[in-house]
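Feature request, filed as a ticket because there's no other form

It would be nice if the structure record came with a short human-readable summary line next to the tokens. Right now we just get the raw output. Example of a typical job, pasted below so the devs can see what we mean:
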Amino acid sequence: MSTRENETELITSAQQGDQKAFEKLMIMHDRQILQLAFTLLGNLADAQDVYQDTFMRAFMKLDTFKFQSAFGTWLTRITINLCFNRRRQKKIRKWLPLQEEQFSTDAQQTEVFLKEHVHRALQKLSPLQHAAFTLKHMQGYKIKDIAEILDRSPGTVKNALFRATEKLQSILGSYNTKE
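Raw output as currently delivered:
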């Protein structure tokens, strides 16, 4: 039996009230959902809240899942919507300028600095650009899948990716390693 067939059986069982089946579905997708929430929010506590809210909402709305998309796609869409809502509510802007003396020439600290700088740059994108960029370049989704998840046309997704890339290049340009 394929993973897809097994997942379909689990969903059907969960829709009929089997909590163990839903727990198995959670286990199949939990890492992806938490990683996506953390990438979009940049804060582990907020990501964990969204992670919990995603699965609570999925459980409550499981009867509305009609197998028109993959279950993971449906969960991803719920997660992104919750992240958008949380960002709107909190107006997340948690990154403060870092002091230069915090960094040495040590390669590990330099890598941490660059990751933080990239993360701050991602936070400057619009929610749509951030979600599209994250789904494409960090989660590996295809444009058509991103369009479905975000409920946008493929053209809108491509435009958001183009704008996100432009903005990130502008922000991160000073860190270009070419000499």
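Something like this underneath would help us a lot:
The two ends are 53 Å apart (CA to CA).
The mean pLDDT is 83.
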